[in-house]
Design a protein that fits this description.
By secondary structure, the chain is α/β, with parallel strands linked by helices. The chain has 8 helices and 5 strands. The chain has a 5-stranded parallel β-sheet, with helices on both faces. α3 runs parallel beside α5 and α6 packs parallel to α8. The chain is globular, with a radius of gyration of 15 Å.
């Protein structure tokens, strides 16, 4: 049911290439049992590819998964939000997300489950104005992979569950390559 990169101390969970893709999972009301314990066994990070940041049902479902992620061993929930922003600014941050109420639900659910919330995306001031939209996305993906690797190096006891845009885990030059290079 899963596609994992088990040789690396991190996992990439790509629901588009499993028997139960996100769309089917959402349409079933998230009733399928997700094998988080298996996915997190022997790895420091589980990177979940979010296929649609603006899908209400998908984002609502992520919020409902936080307890299961914590039960599977996750200690931190990492979100694709600028790394220089602080959790105390959640209302302001949420206004700049596609589904502000769902983002706040996800963060609150993670906190309620006992997960420490961390943000991993490239800060705005590091993005070059001359980059095209594609270059910006690729560089953000590389940054997020490096961020996760650095975070795990500084916090060796941590087990993270990160939710990143699908393209950032599907493109080998982004999160996968950065994790491999820094992992």
């Amino acid at each position: 049911m899963t596609e994992l990169l088990m040789d690396n101390p991190k996992s990439l969970y790509d629901w588009k290439h499993t028997e139960t893709p996100w769309g089917a999972l959402v349409s079933q009301g998230w009733s399928a049992q997700i094998p988080y314990r298996d996915l997190m066994r022997g790895v420091s990070a589980l990177i979940i590819g979010d296929t649609n940041h603006g899908n209400n049902a998908l984002q609502r479902g992520f919020a409902r998964q936080m307890k299961d992620l914590q039960a599977a061993g996750a200690t931190h929930a990492i979100f694709e939000i600028n790394a220089d922003l602080k959790i105390g600014e959640i209302d302001s941050i949420a206004r700049n997300t596609r589904l502000s109420h769902r983002f706040k639900d996800e963060v609150r659910a993670a906190q309620a489950a006992g997960l420490e919330v961390v943000f991993m995306d490239m800060p705005e001031h590091m993005r070059q104005k001359e980059w095209s939209a594609e270059e910006t996305a690729v560089n953000r993906g590389k940054y997020m992979g490096e961020f996760i690797a650095d975070f795990l190096q500084k916090n060796p006891e941590a087990k993270v569950a990160a939710i990143a845009g699908y393209a950032h885990i599907n493109d080998p030059a982004q999160i996968p390559q950065s994790l491999e290079a820094h992992g």
